[in-house]
TrEMBL record:
Protein species of origin: Hankyongella ginsenosidimutans
Subcellular location: Cell membrane
Source taxon at top rank: Bacteria
Entry keywords, A to Z: Cell membrane, Membrane, Transmembrane, Transmembrane helix
Major location category of this protein: membrane
Transmembrane segments: 39-61
Record keyword Membrane present: yes
This protein's name: Envelope stress response membrane protein PspC
Membrane topology: Single-pass membrane protein
Gene that produces this protein: pspC
């Protein structure tokens, strides 16, 4: 299984090699802004490093596996948050589990309470 937290070239949303689209997917931003930033850095005098770095990344990085393209939006959002801010993502997961645990305790209390047994007995008598 492929790692959901790695950098991949995004060939489905690519304009040239998929480097900017892959970076945008990795960081959870719009690919347009990554492309604009890359062009601006190249124009402002960073072309000596930006263009070769772009080409090397495009040559070395792996293509995004097909299975990762078809993930539901909620799962894509989860993995994007885990890449960009793991501690915040874990806090949200812990909070969700705490909420589920609380709800499960409420259900257990309702099912095992004596009033539930009494209600069931009254229903049988009807």
């Amino acid at each position: 299984m492929s790692s959901r937290t790695r950098f991949y070239l995004d060939k489905r949303n690519a304009k040239f090699m998929g480097v900017c689209a892959g970076a945008a997917d990795y960081f959870g931003v719009d690919p347009l802004w990554v492309r604009v930033g890359t062009v601006l850095v190249s124009i402002m005098g960073g072309a000596g490093i930006t263009i070769p770095a772009y080409l090397v990344i495009g040559w070395l990085a792996e293509n995004k596996p097909r299975a990762l393209y078809d993930l539901p939006e909620a799962e894509q959002k989860f993995w994007r948050e885990m890449r960009t801010s793991p501690s915040q993502g874990l806090r949200e997961v812990r909070g969700s589990f705490r909420d589920l645990d609380r709800r499960l305790r409420d259900i257990e209390t309702h099912v095992t309470s004596s009033s539930r047994n009494l209600s069931a007995e009254i229903d049988r008598l009807r």
